[in-house]
Amino acid sequence: MATTTIVLGRRGALRDGGARLRTGRSDVRIALLFVAPALLGLIAFYIVPTVRGLYLSFTEYSILGSPEWVGADNYQRLLADPLFWNALVVTIQYVLINIVLQTAVALGLALLMHRVAHSTVIRGMLLMPYLMANVIAALLWFWMLDYNIGVVNQLIDGLGLPRVAFFGSQEWAIPTQALINTWRHMGYVALLIFAGLQAIPETVYEAANLDGANPFQQFTRITLPLLRPVLALVLILTVTGSFQVFDTVAVTTQGGPVNASRVLQFYIWQRAFAEQEFGYGSAIAVVLFLILAIVAFIQMRVLRGNESDLA
Fold first, then answer.
1. Comparing C-alpha atoms, which of 49, 54, 98, 40 is closest to residue 244?
2. Can you tell me the distance from the alpha carbon of 49 to that of 31, in angstroms, rounded to the nearest whole number?
3. Looking at the DSSP assignment, which residues form a beta bridge with residue 68?
4. pLDDT of residue 6
5. 173 with 262: CB under 8 angstroms?
6. Contact call for residues 281 and 64 (beta carbons, < 8 A)
7. Digit-coded pLDDT (tens) for 197-239
8. Got the DSSP string for 38-76?
9. Contact 248/175 with Cβ under 8 angstroms?
10. What is the pLDDT of residues 285-309, one digit of tens each?
11. Across the chain, what does the average pLDDT equal?
C-alpha cells in the first residue's frame, strides 16, 4: 500500500511538473510575441546599420558605385585630417559647456520641484521644450537671436549695449548652441533627477535636522551622495547625446563661421552625404562610437552608477 502511494505521488508530481513546463513555454512564446516588434526594429534600424557602417569604414564607396575594399586607409587618413581633429575639439567644447549648464540648471529645477513646486502643471510646462522637435527649437532660437531682427538683440540694443552675433562669431557659436540645447533638454533631465529625489526617504532628512545639519550640509552630505546612481545615468545620457548634436548646428550655423561649430556629427554628414565619401564618413562614425563607449564605461566606473548608498 505504501509503495502504491509513493508511485502515485511521483506520477502526480511528474504531471504537475509537466504542466508547469508547458505553462512556462507558453509564457515564453507570449513574451517573445510582444518583444518581437521591438526586436525587429532593433535589428533593422540599429544592428544592421551598425554592422554595415563598420564594413563600409574599410571601403571606398560612393552612392554611384560599389564598395571597394581599402583596408585601414580611411583610418590612416582620419589620423592626418586636421578637420577631424578640429571637429573633435569643437565637439568636446560643446559637450563641456552643455553638460555643466544642463546638469546645474536641471538639478536646481529638480530641487525646486521637490521642495517648492508640487503642481503637475508646472512639471508639465518644464517638459514642454523637450517635446518640441529639434529643428523647430533651433529655428525658434535662430530667429530670436538673429543679429538684425532677433528679439534678443533688439532688447540688447534697447539697453544701449552692442549687439551680439550669436551665430556669426567664432566666440559665441558653440556657447549659443549649448544654451539652445540646455533650454530644450533641461526639463527632461530635471524630471529624471526629481524621480531620484523622490526615492530618498524623508526620514533621512528628519534625522539630519535632529542632528542640527543645515540645508547646505544636507544637500552635500545626503542629497548628492544618494543621487549618485541617478546623476550617473543623467551624465551618461547627456554626454552621449551631446556628442551626437547635429540638428541645431545644421539649422543655424552649418559648421561655421570658419569651422567654429563643425561638430563631429555634422562633419560625418558632410563627408558621407554632401561629398559622397561614405567609407570615410563611416570611419569617422566608428571612431565616434568608440569614443562614446569608452566615455560611458569610464563614467560608470568612476561614478559607480550601479551602486546605491541607500542600502
1. 98
2. 26
3. 60
4. 47
5. no
6. no
7. 988 888 888 888 888 888 889 888 888 888 888 898 899 999 9
8. HHHHHIIIIIHHHHHHHHHTTEE--TTS--EE-TTHHHH
9. no
10. 999 999 999 998 998 888 776 666 6
11. 87
**Could you give the 3-state DSSP secondary structure of residue 150?**
coil
φ/ψ of residue 104, rounded to 5: -65, -45
Distance CA 52, CA 59 (A): 11
Neighbours of 67 (CB within 10 A): 16
Task: Say what the pTM is.
Answer: 0.86
Question: Helices 278-303 & 228-243, crossing angle to 10 degrees?
Answer: 170
Express the helix, strand and coil content of the chain in percent, nearest 5 each: 75, 0, 25
Q: Determine the 3-state secondary structure of 4 from DSSP.
A: helix
Q: 91 φ, ψ to 5°?
A: -65, -45
* Partners of residue 74 on adjacent β-strands: none
Q: What are phi and psi of 60, to 5 degrees?
A: -110, 115
Answer whether residue 7 shows pLDDT above 60.
Answer: no
Q: 57 with 283: CB under 8 angstroms?
A: yes
Determine how β-strand 68-69 pairs with β-strand 59-60. Answer: antiparallel
Whether a cis peptide bond, with omega within 30° of 0, leads into 257 is yes
pLDDT score of 127:
82
Measured between its terminal Cα atoms, the distance across the chain in Å is: 55
Read off the DSSP letter of residue 154. Answer: H
Residue 8 is classified by DSSP as H
